[in-house]
């Protein structure tokens, strides 16, 4: 059920998405993006 006047925000965990890819440099970027996404979501809450 959706409520008028609200916004739903969804994000994909980049670390979970990159687990199947064996690339340490890419995992470091995913960790950085994960941290930034968490900060954004906390700011919205």
Describe the structure.
The chain is an all-alpha fold. The chain has a domain of 31 residues. It contains two helices and no strands. The longest helix is centred in the C-terminal third of the chain and has 21 residues. The two termini are 19 Å apart.
Order of helices and strands: HH
Tell me the span between the first and last alpha carbons: 19 Å
Low-confidence stretches: none
What is the CA-atom radius of gyration, in angstroms?
14 Å
Beta-strand portion reads: under 5%
Number of helices: 2
Largest sheet: none
**Looking at the structure, what is the overall shape?**
elongated
Could you estimate the helical fraction of the residues in percent? 55-70%
Question: What keyword list fits this structure?
Answer:
single chain, 45 residues, mainly alpha, 2 helices
Annotate the secondary structure layout.
Layout (H helix, E strand, L loop, with lengths): L13 H5 L5 H21 L1
Give a quick rundown of the structure.
The protein has helices at residues 14-18, 24-44. By secondary structure, the protein is mostly helical.
């Amino acid at each position: 059920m959706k409520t008028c006047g609200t916004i739903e925000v969804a994000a994909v965990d980049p670390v979970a998405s990159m687990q199947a890819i064996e690339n340490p440099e890419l995992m470091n970027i995913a960790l950085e993006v994960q941290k930034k996404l968490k900060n954004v979501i906390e700011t919205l809450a």
